[in-house]
Design a protein that fits this description.
mainly alpha; two-stranded antiparallel sheet; 6 helices; about 75% helix
Length: about 200
């Protein structure tokens, strides 16, 4: 038992478990990887013409499975994911859409693109365009192709703006939380020192 003049024992707060946070991050990462894999499968397998459907009909079930997994993963991200993960998944979907559009135009409309003959070419051109690192080996020569490339660049600008705003918001929230924690810790330390001094004064009397 403690005497009257002794300060009350301090109760240590239980350690905060970080397992839920790690589990949530792992789920978000695995969902994004699933989206990326499903989209890549769709790029390589979805038929874009009647001849594709006839020549590679056996790929259609694979494309359907990939599309089903994609929809399920996107719904999960929209419901439970963070804004950053939503933006990343949105970019992956946009890359897939532009890739398929570039390939369809390049193979269906002669003279629109110079250098796109396969789906990998279209994916490569999409990535180099949206990251603004074009090497000049593939060019948009037709009006339709140039309009589509312009839309891809506009989307990229909007995406970067949204991503920057979200990162700024997260950094601001983290800084505010750190400042608040430091303020609470200082207040608790000051209160503990004041209580200890009061108990010492009472014991001396």
């Amino acid at each position: 038992m403690s005497s009257i003049g002794d300060p009350p024992p301090q109760r240590s707060s239980p350690p905060v478990s970080r397992r839920p946070q790690r589990r949530h991050r792992w789920h978000a990462l695995s969902t994004t990887l699933l989206v990326a894999g499903a989209l890549l499968t769709i790029i390589l397998t979805v038929p874009l013409s009647h001849s594709d459907a006839l020549e590679a009909w056996w790929l259609i079930p694979l494309a359907i499975v990939a599309l089903t997994l994609l929809i399920a993963a996107l719904i999960r991200t929209i419901r439970h994911g963070s804004n950053i993960m939503r933006l990343i998944n949105l970019m992956l979907v946009a890359v897939t859409a532009f890739t398929l559009a570039f390939y369809s135009i390049a193979t269906g409309v002669p003279g629109e693109f110079d250098g796109i003959s396969t789906r990998i070419d279209a994916l490569y051109f999409t990535l180099t365009t949206m990251t603004t690192t074009g090497y000049g080996d593939i060019t948009a020569t037709g009006q339709t192709a140039r309009v589509l490339v312009s839309l891809a660049l506009l989307f990229d600008l909007v995406f970067l703006g949204l991503l920057g705003a979200e990162l700024s918001r997260l950094l601001g929230r983290r800084a505010a939380a750190t400042a608040e924690a430091a303020k609470l810790e200082a207040a608790a330390s000051k209160h503990a020192d004041s209580t200890s001094a009061t108990h010492r004064a009472g014991a001396e009397q």
